[in-house]
Amino acid sequence: MPPVENRIAESSPYQPFVSPSTQLPEITCRSVLLGAVLGIIFGATSAYLGLRVGLTVSASIPSAVVAMLLFRSRTHSTILENNIVQTIASAGESIAAGVVFTVPAMIFLGFDLEVLRTFLLALSGGIIGILFMIPLRRYLIIKEHGKLLYPEGTACAEILMAGQSGGVKAKNVFTGLGIGALYKFCMGGDGGALRLWNGLPTWSPSWYPGSTLNAEVSPELLGIGYVIGYQTSALMVAGGVLSWLVLIPMLRFFGQAGNQAILPAMKAIPLMTTEEIYRDYVKYIGAGAVTAGGIFSMVRAMPSIISSFRASLRQLVNQRSGKAEAALRTDRDLPITVVVVGSVLTIVFISLLPQLQVNLLSAFLIVVFGFFFSVVASRLTGQVGSSSCPNSGMAIATLIGTCLIFVALGLTGEPRYLAMALSVGAIVCIASSNAGTTSQDLKTGFLVGATPIYQQTGLIIGVLTSVLVIGWTVVYLNRNFTTFEKLQLDVTVTPVSNSVATQGPDGKPYRLVRIQNHSILPDGKFLVDAQEGKVRFRQIPGIENLQAPQAKLMSVVIKGILDRKLPWGLILFGILIAVVIELCGVHSLAFAVGVYLSLSSTMPIFVGGLVRKLADKVYHRTADDASETEGTLFSSGLIAGGALVGILVAGIVGAGLAETFAIGDKWFPAFCQNRLVGLGMFGLLAGWLFAAAKTKKN
Fold it and tell me: How far, CA to CA in Å, does 607 sit from each of 153, 211, 219, 232, 237?
């Protein structure tokens, strides 16, 4: 069987692994059941990872591998059944990512986390993301084939086809999978277990204050860089270089004599770490760049989007008039009537729920921003993959637009407007996250020959099942990681009537009181002595102890705009950076993503692209040619191995066994923490990828 890219190039419009005329079992009871179970598991796991370290791991590839192993051990399954399993399961991870990036901001805005509210936000955003993506399939998946590579979707398709067909192709994929899994398990950092070498080599030269060069030397990022090619990976790392080697050192240089904090930061620049400067200043610049880059991308794509809608409407009219030709199995989508009616009903459902505090204006904003960022997220996923898609940046842009409209209409000054704005941002963030995953799954289905309508139905099933546990998981983590901090201040307050009697960490009875807009105390909950009225302890929510970096940023944006304290200059800097890149004749979206993301993420992707460029030159191939297979197959294995072990390590961390497995830190800490060792191991992995990319003779 020839490689997938060659098969598509040999016929028009494409020739998938399973012929459109072939009928195979696809959306079966066992595939739906297994996909739903895996979606629940990966949804809960991703919720923890997102809160703890601010990232999630794609569930598509691990789910596909699990399906092949479980089904093959009993009865032979079809490739289309295995594809449905990964399609359903992927919804759990994507929704969890959107939830943990936004919903925990409720805590920082002075509200309690509620299971029902989280469930409703996740359900609404998940369904909208799928429905908005369906009319775009013909444009993003078919028309843009060869331009939008969807690295993780392609890798998942290669895994499925390798497991089905075997042979040399399967050997390349599973060799990469084994090497990637072993490497990931042994490395250090958040994703590794044994910590035998440094997983995040970092260099901050003293002669260039504020600059940082670092890289998360993981196999999946290396593989993604190879698949997307040199050009896109170079644009991404260029944005990272601008942030970490230009903007942050510049802020450090001009702020070195300052002794006062400049909002939105709470510290003077000389007292801030590099990470704090990035979080409090550069991320706003990146969000502005991503927003502008998304607008430019949307404008360029609009003619094709309109054409896709026309094709869907034409198909519907022909069906109603009896003139429709029999559509190929691989070209059947959910009818456009289902998309429109489903979207309208979902928006009405959202606006009628008192728990979400969303009115008709907010519902309209959800439609506008939801569709826009669903397109942007789907396209970005095709360019840089799910792991590098900046959904939190798009959520920030949504919050900025929403809060500006609120300010213009005078909807400020009341806590409910904070919750309303966050509900809009959360639903849009979840929708864009799930739209990107939907497009990734549809790309996998396109390559293997799946039926789109079955995949779209499977994704809806995945949303309906995974949302049952994500809200409980977030609330459970918040409750179990909550701590109390003893105050050194002598402050007296009067406990209000709705305060709750509770026991303090010292075993004494207290009243749990929510305090806001106090002259001395920060907003939050405190333990107050019931007799004396003195504040003894501050309650630190579990979400705050778990870091929740994106959620903190969301709350700062909402408060900043509604209180008129947002640093608009920073956002405008980002917008104009994207404009400059466009004026240079380069599409700015990939560059803007690099500005927003950490350099530690874009640098290993660039190394993968560099290996691709070197291999193409040495092996005399066209640069970034989509028909290249050897390196793509091996890279798909690296992505799969890294994703599988990422899920395993998340389980180890969740069980509290991280230190037990970290033998490198115990036995030879100096060696395993040395950055040169980490770079050397990553160099060996890159060399292995280069060797595996050599064109094999038939």
Answer: 21, 20, 11, 12, 10
| Chain centre distance of CA 130 | 16
Amino acid present at 22: T
Nearest CA to 367 among 94, 559, 127?
127
Contact 181, 469 (CB under 8 A): no
Contact residues for 676 (Cβ-Cβ < 8 A; gap 6+): 201
Give exposure, 654-672, as e/b (b: 16+ Cβ within 10 Å). Answer: eeeebeebbebbeeeeeeb
Locate 68 and state its tokens: 């092949």
Residue 601 in domain: yes
Give the range of the structural domain holding residue 162, as residue numbers without chain letter.
Answer: 22-321+335-479+566-692
Nearest to 513 by CA among 531, 533, 532: 533
Number of independent structural domains in the chain? 2
List pLDDT tens digits, range 6-30: 443 333 456 788 888 888 888 899 9
Residue 363 and residue 469 in one domain: yes
Find out whether 136 and 375 touch, Cβ atoms under 8 Å. yes
Are residue 508 and residue 590 in the same domain, yes or no?
A: no
Judge whether 7 lies within some domain. Answer: no
Contacts of residue 597, defined as CB under 8 A and 6 or more positions apart, other chains included, come to 236, 239, 240, 286, 388, 390
416 and 360 in a single domain? The answer is: yes
Same domain, 107 and 230: yes
How far is the C-alpha of 295 from the C-alpha of 498, rounded, in Å?
A: 47
Residues 562-596: tens digit of each pLDDT: 767 777 888 899 999 999 999 999 888 889 888 98
Q: 535 forms bridges with which residues in the sheet?
A: 528
Verify that 573 and 432 share a domain, yes or no: yes
User: Which parts of the chain sit beneath pLDDT 50?
Assistant: 1-12, 698
CA pair distance 217, 605, nearest whole angstrom: 9
**Residue-wise DSSP of 174-199:** HHHHHHHHHHHHHB-SSS-SS--B-S
Considering the entire predicted model, what is its pTM?
0.76
Dihedral (Cα; 202, 205, 210, 212), 10-degree rounding: -30
What are residue 514's DSSP bridge partners?
Answer: 525
**Pair 387, 58: CB distance under 8 Å:** yes
Give the C-alpha separation, 404 to 395, whole Å.
14
Buried b (16+ CB within 10 A) or exposed e, 320-358: eeeeeeeeebbeebbebeebeebbeebbebbbebeebbb
Contact in structure between 678 and 201 (CB atoms under 8 Å): yes
pLDDT tens for each residue of 32-81: 999 999 888 888 777 776 676 555 666 777 788 778 777 765 556 788 99
Residue 277 and residue 176 share a domain: yes
14 domain-assigned: no
Residue 405's Cβ-count burial label (10 Å; 0-12, 13-18, 19+) is middle
Residue 189 in contact with residue 202, Cβ under 8 Å? Answer: no
CA gap 61, 221 in Å, rounded: 14
Report how far Cα 195 is from the mean position of its chain's Cα atoms.
Answer: 25
On whether residue 342 sits in a domain, the answer given is yes
- Cβ atoms of 364 and 401 within 8 Å: the answer is no
Asked if 493 and 462 sit in the same domain, the reply is no
Q: At 187, give phi and psi (nearest 5°).
A: -75, 170
